[in-house]
Design brief:
This protein is an alpha/beta fold and 410 residues long. The protein has 2 domains: 126 residues, Alpha-Beta Complex (Aspartate Aminotransferase, domain 1); 238 residues, Type I PLP-dependent aspartate aminotransferase-like (Major domain) (Aspartate Aminotransferase, domain 2, 3-Layer(aba) Sandwich). The protein has 15 helices and 14 strands. Helix 4 packs parallel to helix 12, helix 7 runs parallel beside helix 8 and helix 13 runs parallel beside helix 15. The N and C termini lie far apart (50 Å).
Length: 410
């Protein structure tokens, strides 16, 4: 059937996004990855850019493990053993040994009883919050939580939703105090690291507040943390925001295999009873294919590397490059936010200047992501840089030199 009338509506909506400056626009198409050599990290070629080489400063692959030879070899071996796809969902077609091994290793890495993998971390968050939210549940969220948490709260249809000002612990306490006697269950959910700014939640404080009010609700105050940007990129051993804050009492931890671990997929770790329950009730798990056996094998190898002396060295290198870049921005007279995470925002605070600076960086061979109004509020416009362990000191210095070229006129 023709869609002419609907297409007119859809086209008008896209045009409106374009006019507002909210349209994301065409995506860069990567055609080649050039391995690190001669003191330079990996370089990338883009369609329509010929032989021009680019430094990626907008990748979540914080440890560079997607290009690690042992990770690639693990995936290639598993492809030869199992093929390229899982065939169907796990309860119909069966699971693969690489899935089982990965789940066990994830649980052990995080000191939990059990683990469960999903097709992505976004889906993992939905797959946790939706089944755990009853009609008598209050869900409490930080105002800057990721879109996956926002949509999970919408889909789960709790009795009520409360949002507290970013990192405002007094506000969180007030919500729980006022909620006592009105709900059977409370789920407090927060990002570990907030991806737009690179700041992190004080999980030690949040877990303490949850325990303080836990006895006032028949089915507990449950703390759920999505630490997708923290695991592998934060803490001496890469165990994320829990490690940085020394937190105890995070009941349910969600994270990703697709950022620092360099592969694809998401996961949750927690108690054995929790994971058994989610396997039976999470539609995002039950009715969706898992990551491939080969991806699971690659992720397992990445996790083994992270949980080794090599991994500790990679995390230390990442932290050193992050400090070098953040300090370089400050020295050059740019504004950034204090922190240790490899998400390093350059606060431009103007939409047109942000777009101009992103354009200048790309013209000079640097890929970075600008966040402008209305994606962020007026006055919060920024360029979000993401440092990786496979950037070299020379790479960091090159980007800083390009930024210095336009200081004062960007």
């Amino acid at each position: 059937m023709p869609m002419n009338r609907l297409q007119e509506v859809l086209g008008a909506e896209v045009a409106a996004m374009d006019k507002k400056g909210a349209r994301k626009g065409p995506e860069d198409v990567i055609t080649h990855v050039i391995p690190a050599a001669g003191g330079a990290g990996p370089r990338y070629r883009l369609a329509a850019e010929g032989d021009k080489l680019f430094i990626k400063m907008n990748s979540n692959a914080y440890l560079g493990l997607s290009l690690h030879p042992e990770v690639r070899e693990a995936e290639e071996k598993a492809v030869r053993r199992f093929g390229v796809g899982p065939g169907a969902v796990r309860f119909i077609s069966g699971t693969y040994i690489s899935h089982v091994d990965l789940e066990a290793r994830l649980a052990a890495f995080h000191g939990r009883e059990s683990g469960m993998i999903f097709s992505s971390a976004y889906i993992a968050t939905l797959g946790v919050l939706v089944p755990l939210t009853s009609p008598e549940t209050l869900v409490v969220s930080d105002e800057l939580n990721h879109n996956c948490i926002i949509n999970a709260m919408r889909l789960s249809r709790p009795a009520a939703k409360k949002v507290y000002k970013h990192l405002d612990m007094d506000a969180l306490k007030g919500i729980l105090r006022d909620a006592a006697g009105h709900y059977r269950r409370v789920i407090v959910v927060t990002d570990g690291v907030f991806s737009m700014r690179g700041d992190h939640a004080p999980l030690d404080v949040i877990s303490g507040i949850c325990r303080e009010f836990d006895g006032q609700f028949p089915e507990n105050v449950v703390l759920v943390v999505d630490d997708s940007h923290g695991v592998g990129a934060f803490g001496v051993t890469g165990r994320g925001t829990e490690e940085i804050t020394g937190a105890r009492g995070v009941d349910i931890l969600v994270a990703t295999l697709g950022k620092a671990l360099g592969v694809n997929g998401g996961y949750v770790v927690g108690s054995r009873v929790l994971v058994d329950y989610l396997r039976e009730t999470a539609p995002m798990y039950i009715y969706s294919n898992p990551i491939t056996p080969a991806e699971a094998a690659a992720a397992l190898r990445s996790l083994e590397i992270l949980d080794s002396t090599e991994g500790v060295a990679l995390v230390e290198s990442l932290q050193g490059r992050t400090r070098r870049f953040r300090q370089g921005l400050v020295k050059a007279g740019y504004e950034t936010l204090a922190g240790e995470h490899p998400v390093v925002p350059l606060m431009v605070r103007d939409t047109s200047r942000t777009k101009a600076l992103v354009h200048h960086l790309k013209r000079r061979g640097v890929l970075a992501t600008g966040l402008a109004y209305p994606v962020v509020p007026r006055g919060d416009e920024e360029i979000r840089f993401q440092v990786n362990a496979d950037h070299t000191d020379a790479d960091i210095d090159e980007v800083l030199e390009i930024l210095e070229e336009v200081k004062g006129r960007a």
